[in-house]
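Running low. Invent one:
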Amino acid sequence: MDSSEAARGKESVQKRSPLDLIMNQLRRKTSFTERKKTSVGRLFRPSESSDRKNGGIPEIKESDLSEGKENKEPERGEALDCIPLIEVLDLSWNVGIGAGNFRHFTEQIQPENRLKDLRLVDCQLSETDITALSKALPLLSGLEELDLSNNKLSIKGMENLTSSFSATPRLKTLKLSMCGLGKDHLSALGQAFRFITALEHMDLSCNKEAGGGLSTLAANLLLLTHLRSLDMHLCCLTKDDVLTLVQVAPSLKELRELDLSSNKSVGDTLQNLLQSLPLSQMTKLPLNNCDLSDSACQALATVMQTLKRLESLNLSWNKCVGENLREFLEPLQADCKLQELRLSSCNLTTEDVLHLESACQRGALSQLKLLDLSYNGSVGDGGWTSLFGKAASLKGLEELDVSLRPSASLSVSPWLPALLEALPQLTSLSRLSLQHWTLSSAERDKLEKILSKKSAILECDRLNTPTPKAAG
């Protein structure tokens, strides 16, 4: 090849966008009749009914092209024209999808497509790309899930997008986490709720500019009568924001999960919120890092018996839980559904852990799969010894974390025998975290020997080994 041909070849490669490569991957995966199933790889997982009557083409239901890699034969193909049966398309973490390139994809969407789930997480979508998506939504009337997380949306882009939701009445899941949403974005979204009344799951988390703007959204939440989960953690919500939610919460009769964690204002308004939620059907209630006050803790403890279906409770990073854990645990009975209990950095005392032991003993935590007691260095050795002595009742426990803060350095020796005796009875345990505790090599060997029999992982980064004596 002469230098001019090489230069032209190099220029051709440089002009190819990552979207070209992705589109080509989609196109190439259509010729299933000429390939063995084993050559498909992870990009497509066809259903078992591969002997369909439509020309022998298997029913392709999912395509995962996230983190796309370079293809050696790049060529833009009419991918969705060739593959009308795709139901799930994940193009996440492909930065070449954005920067104005997404229109090349949307231009290939055909009216007869079956796409239900479109994921475009962190694709650096521009306003032009969002506009292209908005124009394509009328062709995606069967869309049930849309994930645009980690793409900064302009107000104009948001307005274009939400105005097109009238074409997607079946939308059930909408994820807009870390999209830079502010008051005007929320206003545009709220006005579009009348188009997507089938919505069940909405993630607006990690939009720190949303604080103070919830009133523009909340009034229209009443239209989402099927809403089951709402995630607004780390949104810098104000006290007025939470009180606005309090006003509409009684109308959200299908709500099962509400995540307002990492919003400090929740601490002052939790009592009002608890009075408005459908507590008897709530399954998940994360309240970690909410700056809960003593009165807020008391209010939550009072309704624990009402939370009959609660499966996950996260109170981590709320110091008021320390010395008050008894109030949360005493209402729990043998029919408790709790599967996850997170109490990291709660200033727990030895007495708190003794109450936890009592709850284990009476079977109130028999369904627990995850127990996080990390960063509670104020618990004495007697507390850990007593807890592990009754840990055998946690037969379903899969993850146990009692790690210390990185700055701490305490020995496991006083309570390790109780833990070693309990481990064989914890038949479901898959992960044990003892980070920042000091162990001797012999102690670590004993732990690893027991855990290896159940293929469980030991997370432990401190090893106390004796200093070798100098020769002579």
